[in-house]
Write a structure and sequence with these properties.
CATH class of the domain at 99-217: Alpha Beta
Helix content: 25-40%
Number of helices: 16
Structural class: alpha+beta
Shape: globular
CATH architecture of the domain at 99-217: 2-Layer Sandwich
Radius of gyration: 23 Å
CATH topology of the domain at 99-217: Uridine Diphospho-n-acetylenolpyruvylglucosamine Reductase, domain 3
Distance between the termini: 29 Å
Bound molecules: flavin-adenine dinucleotide
Length: 460
């Protein structure tokens, strides 16, 4: 029997239109997990509000009744950020998926939080604009969820992560107050920056009900792939290209193991050595020149091949390599569970971190692949292990732990773009020290009864 109180249920019925909530166990089951390997938690109910007023009213009720609320967009989080808090409800933003106003002359868009990233960019393309970060999960990730996790992606090097694009937010606080943070000005030095505070707060400080984003003009693109004999030469190419004043639209690294996986999955025969994918964004003549400078630099540094995409189809093929690494791993290691990393380190530490990962894998007798956003020091790693092999799973966890601690020791972060959620809680204090107490106090001020996504980010 669902333990939801009859009083709470009656109040929900008063606040929300029919069919805006469910207690059906088959429905609840679908909302009990995100894309992480964290344990599922059945919520008491799922609610689908249709406007900011309904969200504020539900929060007020939950605050009075001390019922936890976990906001949910696409549920694609990888660290347990969107797993329901025990004894709570899920507040899904799926029905609030309207692009409210495109302001081309201001390079801005005003939208509801449930809009999906790829859908937004399809609508913006008609105006020659785009919202840049470029998460690989763009077909499911909502803008509200990207705000919740401060999501990044392939284009963050040139344009910044979600936080760099959010100008203004409407937020429902835990007590049901509905407030606007920020303005539509491109810059401001007025007061504390509550917009940046909200971005990356994983639904723990308030629920975002409307968003104004900053946009960029859709650029011309040129794409090239370069293979290098060693990680060091690939890293040198990253450094030299960026030092030459070129800021690529994307600069991705795939290690030799990732390329091996791609070759098996796609039946390709790419050289199985460290590989960089460059994309140049801008006006046609400018990016042609950037590509030529990059070709020369890569060749001087010792690239074994440098291949430019000559057609849109070839560009898609080069990108397919980077985008399909995860699918390749899932196919090759079917039945395995995957231990995934998302650390970010200062650029000078990128290669030492990959080497550390490889040494740890050898020490622990595990296979590891490494790839990521080489231009901004964000490294993703994958370790497959069979669920029945408890010992291998323990070793994989230990490896991940050692690698995160290594990243922290060289000035990096436990999470480049996926957030803390449940999985990375133990690293928050190690990374931020006494500053975690300031975070806790901010949480206490905005959510004194602790109803907003409790249990995430902080170890109790
Ligand atoms: C295959 C795959 C690839 C991925 N690639 C990337 C990548 O390239 N870059 C990257 O950054 N991430 C990536 N991710 C992680 C994930 O997709 C992103 O973090 C994404 O932004 C989450 O969006 P979502 O709508 O699914 O949010 P959810 O998972 O539903 O929620 C994310 C967090 O935000 C909170 N939240 C949701 N909506 C709101 C709201 N309206 N107000 C306040 N809080 C809210 C939730 O409570 C939760 O804490 C990937 C995930 C997968 C499965």
């Amino acid at each position: 029997m669902n333990p939801i109180s009859p009083f709470f249920l009656v109040q929900l019925q008063i606040l929300l239109p029919p069919a805006s909530y469910s207690l059906e166990s088959s429905v609840l089951e679908g909302y009990s997990h995100d894309e992480s390997s964290q344990k599922a938690v059945m919520p008491l109910a799922v609610v689908w509000p249709e406007n900011a007023g309904q969200i504020a009213a539900v929060l007020k009720l939950c605050n009075e009744q001390r019922i936890p609320v976990t906001a949910r967009g696409g549920g694609s989080s990888l660290e347990g950020n969107a797993v329901p808090s025990p004894g709570g409800i899920v507040l899904s933003l799926e029905k609030m998926n309207t692009v409210l106003e495109i302001l081309p002359e201001d390079f801005q868009v005003r939208l509801q939080p449930g809009v999906i990233y790829d859908d937004l960019n399809r609508q913006l393309a008609r105006f020659g604009l785009f919202f840049a970060p470029g998460p690989s999960s763009g077909d499911v990730a909502t803008i509200g969820g990207m705000v919740g996790n401060n999501a990044g992606g392939m284009n963050a090097l040139r344009y910044g992560v979600t936080r760099d694009h959010v100008l203004r937010l409407q937020v429902a606080l835990a007590d049901g107050a509905l407030l606007w943070f920020g303005t539509r000005a491109m810059k401001s030095s007025s007061g504390f920056d509550l917009v940046r505070l909200m971005v990356g707060s994983e639904g723990m400080l308030g629920i975002v009900t409307e968003i104004v984003l900053r946009l960029h003009g859709l650029p011309e693109r040129r794409t090239a792939l370069a293979h290098f004999p060693t990680l060091e030469t690939a890293a040198q190419a990253v450094f030299e290209v960026m030092r030459s004043g070129i800021l690529p639209g994307a600069l991705e690294l795939m290690d030799a193991v990732s390329i091996q996986h791609l070759n098996i999955f796609k039946k390709w025969s790419w050289p199985e050595t460290p590989t960089l994918l460059f994309e140049f964004h801008g006006a046609p003549r400018g990016i042609a020149e950037e590509l030529e400078i990059t070709r020369q630099l890569c060749q001087e540094i010792g690239a074994t091949t440098f291949r430019e995409a000559a057609s849109p189809a070839e560009r898609e093929q080069l990108w397919a390599g980077r985008k399909e690494i995860t699918r390749a791993e899932q196919d090759i290691f079917a039945g395995h569970i995957f231990f995934k990393g998302d650390i970010a380190v200062p650029l000078s530490q990128y290669v030492p971190t990959i080497q550390k990962a490889q040494n740890l894998a050898e020490e622990h007798g595990l296979s590891i692949s490494a790839f990521g956003h080489a231009g901004d020091g964000n490294l993703h790693t994958t370790i497959p292990a069979l669920p029945g092999d408890a010992e291998a799973c323990i070793r994989a966890e230990k490896l991940m732990d050692d690698l995160i601690r290594f990243a922290l020791s060289v000035g990096g972060t436990a999470s480049g773009e996926h957030g803390i959620g449940l999985a990375k809680r133990k690293y928050l204090s190690e990374e931020h020290g006494a500053a975690v107490e300031v975070m806790r106090r901010i949480k206490q001020v905005l959510d004194p009864n602790g109803i907003l996504n409790p249990g995430k980010m902080f170890l109790e």
